[in-house]
Amino acid sequence: MTLPHPPPVSEPFGRLPDGTRVRRWWLENGGTRLAVLSLGGIVQRLERPDRNGRRANVSLGFDDIDGYLASAAYLGALVGRYGNRIARGRFDLDGERHFLSVAGGEHTLHGGALGFDRRNWTVHGFARGTDVGLVLTLTSPHGDMGFPGTLGVRVVYTLTEQGDWRIDHHAETDRPTVVNLTSHVCWNLAGETGGPVHGHELSLAGSRTTPVDAGLIPTGRLAPVAGTPFDFRTARAIGPGLAADDPQLRHAGGYDHNWVLDKGVTAVPEPAATLYEPVSGRMLRIATTEPGLQFSCGNLLDGASAGSGSRHDRRGDGLCLETQHFPDSPNQPEFPSTVLRPGETYRSSTVHSFTTL
Does residue 28 carry a catalytic annotation? Predict the structure, then answer.
């Protein structure tokens, strides 16, 4: 008979400006140690050993609440109601136009000025068999950041006996709306003080991208990656592609694009990406039910705030691999739909598996 693992434990982490208490939860299993904040469901730390057994935090974050509140980089956060961009902060649904929150620009990004990354979630720990995890819940009222419908959200973080970190998103609504939830962990498999990630080797299971205009809004076209700096079908280092003279790279200031995963939407997580850091030997494999993956190379990191480990993260010091539906899908009828209606349940699952070579 398998004995249950000890449940996660929590501790105070600080207070928000309105006095709300934020807690940090610790959970460990299979060689993975995870620290999660009630604020934004933020993964503050994810620790893994290298090939010699030396542990390091491989996700970028901050040591205190002030760091997260001062940053616009969404480090480690649960993103919603809509991950990525919605053009001009508006969309039409069932003949009605909805106007959304925009912050610092023309378009809605990651749910608006007060997205799910800025909310204090309700969190409960669990231990079931060989798994440990957290259940995070949040209710987003009708009209929140302009989105229609009261949305009930439940996200489950699970650490398995193998050290895999699984995310399961669920949501239900009382009127038609759009939903696109994702996780914005910024990875550096060399460790949080490892510097630029240009030597990381990446493979992506997508043979097309959704090209963007100068505002990083998809044009609606699907472009083959063959013969371009976006071809990661075979694993290769990230750095050389960044030096290419490509208009898409100029639009984003580097990589910040959605890959169309060849597998499409699936009922269970299927392989989407592999990331390898050759010095430490750490490898991350990502499987998902989602049809897209946004790869960005730390473009929002500006070095302005001191992160954990007293580092100042700059562009290229981390990378995001966000499993999701495509950007601006509510305005792109040819893209997979992100519409959720009453009586339906939004489901999305992503598994992060770690090993060393």
Answer: no
Q: What is the pLDDT of residues 195-226, one digit of tens each?
A: 999 999 999 999 999 999 999 999 999 999 99
User: Which residue blocks in 95-142 are alpha helix, DSSP H?
Assistant: none
Active site residue 352: no
Does the reported pTM lie above 0.85? yes
Compute the distance between CA of residue 38 and CA of residue 23 in angstroms, rounded to an integer.
6
Q: What is the pLDDT of residues 278-296, one digit of tens each?
A: 999 999 999 999 999 999 9
Main-chain dihedrals φ then ψ at residue 312, nearest 5 degrees: -120, 100
The catalytically annotated residue of 184, 257, 325, 352 is 184
pLDDT tens for 86-115 read 999 999 999 999 999 997 689 999 999 999
Rounded-to-integer distance, Cα 189 and Cα 201, Å: 10
State mean pLDDT over 226-235.
98
